[in-house]
Each structure stands twice: as structure tokens, then as C-alpha cells.
From TrEMBL, chains A, B:
This protein's name: Substrate-binding domain-containing protein
Database matches in CDD domains: HTH_LacI, PBP1_LacI-like
Keyword annotations: DNA-binding, Repressor, Transcription, Transcription regulation
Keyword Ribonucleoprotein: no
InterPro entries: HTH_LacI, Lambda_DNA-bd_dom_sf, Peripla_BP/Lac1_sug-bd_dom, Peripla_BP_I
Lineage of producing organism: Bacteria, Pseudomonadati, Pseudomonadota, Alphaproteobacteria, Hyphomicrobiales
HTH lacI-type domain mapped to chain residues: 14-68
GO terms assigned for molecular function: DNA-binding transcription factor activity; transcription cis-regulatory region binding
Length: 351, 351
DNA sequence: CTGAAAGCGCTTACAG
DNA sequence: CTGAAAGCGCTTACAG
């Protein structure tokens, strides 16, 4: 019986029919043997599993997906791979998704406005859920996912009034803690190196930071801001601009993420010969392990990655029915301050 | 006409049949409109594409995969995510695979011996190819892939006599260059911080390094070796052991990868107050961007990632027939020395 | 260039 | 608990 559709030459393709023949059971029985909880006797199951082992049979999940409408694939859209924080995010999602017998289909974005394009591509793969860690997406694309019943969760960002659900660190709270730390250490003038001006993450950290300073009577004029592009190199450039500023050196510098704080520290020390925290105190945000290394010992805010990742995956409702849409559309999770040596003195109380 | 199989509630599922109905053509025509190179008139194609747009139709690649035996998915097995080198590898593979209209299904490994398990899982997804960057796999698993006609390429490792194809950096050559650089700078005693003792990468770099030193009359006794676990922290521990060694400080230290070289530098400087290269010269391997930062300025060997990634994907033969197996089973690609300031003096000639 | 029809490899009501 | 059969949404020979 010649196959009607061409297969790559020399390829052996063992199907449930082959296993059924060897085990002397129906094809349905083979399917049931591989379906947890299916109605099958232990005897039959063992016969099938034996035959499957002999034939090196592995069920074809493409075929089962077609009928179950579940691909067991979760799409992860990654923007900023160069920030080690996102390496840890990828690792955490990989671990959690694999623990649920799914796999990650990764979409790496080169340009900013590629998110919509990535969504169009992942729709073809019939993914069971989408995790978006990158830039903005259009409301049209949100609709494409919703129509198809594909759960979408934003990680560490939110799109107001889009009806999308977002899990994130409580960035404004974190910004406040850093402000408080600087104030207790006696700082009077401040600078920030900011990230993506369109992203909510950087904006919220800045907002919390500034808010707390203003509350404490600091004048807006003594809070400067430089764009750092979220990167080490961008922060280094921002420090050049800060140092060229006639205002002079601020007492305290807030890098909106650890990578930028590290870039700023290296530039302040090696290019301007300054000491930290003696000449200028520095703090970051994220608590990437690199910030704990000997040369940095960076005071920062820990993002509770594992809790954030689990909350994200829970919202995907990979098993069971979709989450009700009455839930709050934004779930900020509070981290904690990690006190190291780039800010002098003792940790202040939470504010 | 009620659907026989349950769909998640509130979900709209548009198929080629719906598009065909709206466009007034057959379902075959819809399929052809979305198949590049298919036999279809421009008029019909436009009618179909119009209807598809109105209905937000996206072809279901699960269904097409079932019949074409191509999932358009490439499996990438990643081990050491904490080494920034592999972040760049992931990014390069993502870029190249997406440029070929495929996506990466990522398998992150926590433990060492999970590779075989990952292979079993990816077989279900009917991937078009497998890229393995992690630890060893059994020859049985190699056979599983070969039987199914799934191309498998090892990235930066090889398994002798397994019949598997590997693309890698010419690690022995790189090790020789570092040895030569140290020798020209006047070093007489040497130490290495090594990586995974089972991996070929570390072994080959060590072998090339030692070989060149021996050639130049260096005695084996003046070449020490410490295990560094391929990590920053492992290298830091290795330096502790090296400094406790009664042999005293060597003239030159080779970190088998940049991450370890950086861990060693930080520990030598901040914990032992040593200067680099005045007290001890250091070199690494990989040329990760972090090694070029101000505090490190690390002399190293660049791995030609882009060439390696392209060679890997070419060997997958995603389009066209599978590669002949007469090809050499191991393709070492030569990098180049990146000369910075952790080794004194001028760059030596290649050896 | 076009349509009707078979079939990819499974899951799952249905009827024993 | 079990098997025969329908069907998931496509691609592709086949016959016009």
C-alpha cells in the first residue's frame, strides 16, 4: 500500500495504527493509553505501552492539537534580551511552562513595532496563550487574540483601557523606596537615568521616585533626568551628559534598571574617577545577580520574578476554563529593597 | 449545524471554508491563495485575500503541518542561560530562524541529564530540526531523531562517533592564541580556570592552550588548572583555591570563558587587591560584550556567532532535501583574537 | 486555473 | 472497558 503523500526519503513514521496492530488492539485503545484519565484497563494499557516502546512510538501532538484545539504551546514575546533581567524571566517561564507539559514558542523582536507582526505569526501556530514582555501592541491585535479565545497576559507592562491583563512589579512603590533611601542618606540633589519613555515600567518608577521626593520637600529643579535607552551603553552616554551639565554632580543617581545603574557606575568611576557612594550614591532596580557582584554591590529593588511569572501563567488558565474578565486588569506585585553598599547608611523604613 | 467537538465558549474560529463561502470560491482556492507558488489566478487570489481580511482569517498551521509533515518549528535546547554568550546565541538563532518563516520552540534545561527528556518531548511536536547547545545526549536519542528524519545539529560541541553533525568554534586554535599572547607578554607560569569537564568546548580550549605552551618549552608543572563550573561564581571560588596554593601567584590566568575570566578579575582585584595586568595577566574566550566594558577590557577570542549560527541553520536544510551524510561531521570555525588590555604588550602573530 | 475528494494522525461521542 | 467511525482544518494529486 503506497503512501499517497510524499515523506522525506528514508524516514520511518510510526503511527498509533502501527502500535495498535502490534498490540492487537484498536487504534482508539492506543490513543486512550496515552491520554491521562482515559477509560482503559491496565492490561490493555500495558500491552499498548509495550508495543509503543518496541516501535519507538511517540504520539503526534500536531494531530491531537488539530482535534483538541490545544497546541500545548505558549508564545513568549521577548524584546530586550540584552538585559539580564529578561534572561531570568525567560528561564522562569521555561521552567514553569515545562512543568505544565507545555513548551515556549519564542518570538524575539528586533525592532520596536514588530509586536503586531509577531502576533500575526503566532496566531498561525494556534498557541494556547501569549505572554508579551515587549513594547506596545495595537488594540486590533488584542482583538485578534480575544476573538480566538487566546489568553494574553502582559508581563511588566500594561496598556490602559485595552481590556488586557497585566502582571507587573509595583514599580511606583519601588521608586518611592529608592527615593526614601537616598533622602535618609542625606541626598539633596538627584538625577535619574530613564528607560524607554513609552514603556510604563520606566514611567512608573520615575513617578514613584519623584513623588516621594516632592512629598519630602525636594524641589523639582533639583531632580534631573537623562534618557538611558534601558541599556548599559545608553546609561554611560547619559552620565556623559550629566557630567557636562553646569548644575554639577548630583548627590544621588537612580538608574531605572540595574543594567543602567551598572553602566553609570562604571562610567562615573573609570572615566570620571569618582567614588561610590562617597562622591555620588547610586541605586538601581530589578536585582539582577550581576548587580550583587563585588565591583557593584548595588542597592536596588528586587522584582519578585517567580511570583510574577506564576501569576502570569495562572492567568493563562492553561488547564480549565478561561479566567473571568471581571478580574482587575492589572496586578502589581510588590518587591523589596535589597540593601547593599552604593547608598550609605542603614536601610530606611518602607514608605 | 451544531459543532460536534466542543470549542471554548465565545470563541470564533474562522476556517478556510468560511473564507471560501464569502469569496465564492472553493476551499482549495483559499488554500492556494495562501500557498506561495501555487497555481491560482491573480483575480481569484485577490478575492480570497479580501474575504480573508474581512474575516480576520489566519491559516491554521497545525492543520497544514499534519499533511505537509512540516511544522515550521525548530527546537532549540539551551543549557547555560546564565552565560551571556548563550543569550546572544538565542538572539542570533531567533533572528535567522524567523527570517526563514519558522519559529523557535525553546527547551530550557535545569539539570544536566535532561537532554534526553527534552528530545522525547520535542519529538511530539514534530519539529523540523533540532539545535542542541547543551550537554550530552544518548546515542539512542540521536537514533530517534535520525529515524524520523529530523535533522540534528550540535552547536559548539560534538559527540565523537555518534554520526551527529556539529558546528563549533575552533576552540583548540583559540586556546593556542591565548597561550601565544601570554608567552609574548613574558609569562612563565600559568593557570587555567576550566568549565564543564565533560564538555568538548572546555577540553579543546585547554588542549590548545597547553599544547602551545609545551611546544614553547614550558613545563607541565608550571601550568595549573582549577575547575570553575563555567560560571562567574565558580571562577571566583577557583581563584580562592588558586590563591591558597603554595605555588603562589601565576603570571597568567586563562579563563576558559569570558564570564569566568570576569569573575576571576573581580575576585583578584577586590578580594586580593591585585592589579591586572601588572600583578597577573588574564584572558578569556567568547568575546561577550560585557568583557569589553570599562572595568574589564578583557583580551579574548571572539566566537564568530553569526557564521556559526548560519552554518547550523544551513545544515538543518529547512528547505530542500536533507544534507547528505557524507559531509564532515564536525565543522570548526575559526574566530579571531580580540586584543584589549588584560594582557600587556602588542598582539602576537597567529600560531 | 479550478473544484471535488482523499487523507494527514489523532480524539471522542456513540453504541455496545 | 472497547471498537468503528466521524471529523479537526488543511494540502494536493486528479480530472477537468
Amino acid at each position: 500500500m503506497p503512501k499517497k503523500y510524499k515523506l522525506p526519503a528514508g524516514t520511518i513514521r510510526t503511527t498509533s495504527l502501527d502500535v495498535a496492530a502490534l498490540a492487537g488492539v484498536s487504534q482508539s485503545a492506543v490513543s486512550r493509553a496515552f491520554t491521562p484519565g482515559a477509560s482503559i484497563s491496565p492490561t490493555t494499557r500495558d500491552k499498548v505501552l509495550d508495543a509503543a516502546r518496541k516501535l519507538n512510538y511517540v504520539p503526534n501532538s500536531i494531530a491531537s492539537s488539530l482535534i483538541t484545539h490545544r497546541s500545548n504551546i505558549v508564545a513568549l514575546i521577548l524584546g530586550d534580551l540584552h538585559n539580564p533581567f529578561y534572561t531570568h524571566v525567560l528561564e522562569a517561564f521555561g521552567r514553569e511552562v515545562q512543568a505544565r507539559d507545555r513548551q515556549l514558542l519564542v518570538f524575539t523582536l528586533n525592532d520596536e513595532q514588530e509586536t503586531d507582526d509577531a502576533i500575526m505569526r503566532l496566531l498561525r501556530y494556534q498557541v494556547d496563550g501569549v505572554i508579551l514582555t515587549s513594547a506596545q501592541m495595537s488594540t486590533q491585535m488584542v482583538g485578534m487574540c480575544q476573538n480566538r479565545g487566546i489568553p494574553l497576559v502582559l508581563f511588566n507592562r500594561y496598556i490602559p483601557q485595552s481590556g488586557t491583563f497585566g502582571v507587573r512589579c509595583d514599580n511606583a512603590w519601588g521608586g518611592r523606596q529608592i527615593a526614601e533611601a537616598f533622602l535618609r542618606a542625606g541626598a539633596k540633589s538627584f538625577a535619574m537615568i530613564t528607560g524607554d519613555p513609552k514603556g510604563t515600567t520606566s514611567k512608573d518608577r520615575v513617578a514613584g521616585f519623584v513623588e516621594r521626593l516632592i512629598e519630602s520637600g525636594v524641589s523639582r529643579a533639583s531632580i534631573r533626568s537623562y534618557e538611558g535607552d534601558s541599556t548599559y551603553e545608553g546609561a554611560s552616554d547619559a552620565v556623559q551628559r550629566m557630567m557636562a551639565d553646569p548644575e554639577g554632580l548630583p548627590d544621588a543617581l537612580f538608574g531605572i534598571n540595574d543594567t543602567m545603574a551598572m553602566g553609570a557606575m562604571d562610567t562615573l568611576r573609570h572615566q570620571f574617577g569618582l567614588s561610590i557612594p562617597e562622591d555620588i550614591m547610586v541605586a538601581g532596580f530589578d536585582d539582577i545577580p550581576e548587580g550583587a557582584r563585588l565591583p557593584y554591590q548595588l542597592t536596588t529593588v528586587r522584582q519578585p520574578i517567580n511570583r510574577m511569572v506564576r501569576a502570569t501563567i495562572d492567568h493563562l488558565s492553561l488547564d480549565g476554563p478561561a479566567q473571568s474578565t471581571d478580574l482587575p486588569h492589572d496586578l502589581p506585585i510588590r518587591g523589596r529593597v535589597v540593601w547593599r553598599s552604593t547608598v550609605p547608611g542603614d536601610p530606611p523604613a518602607e514608605v
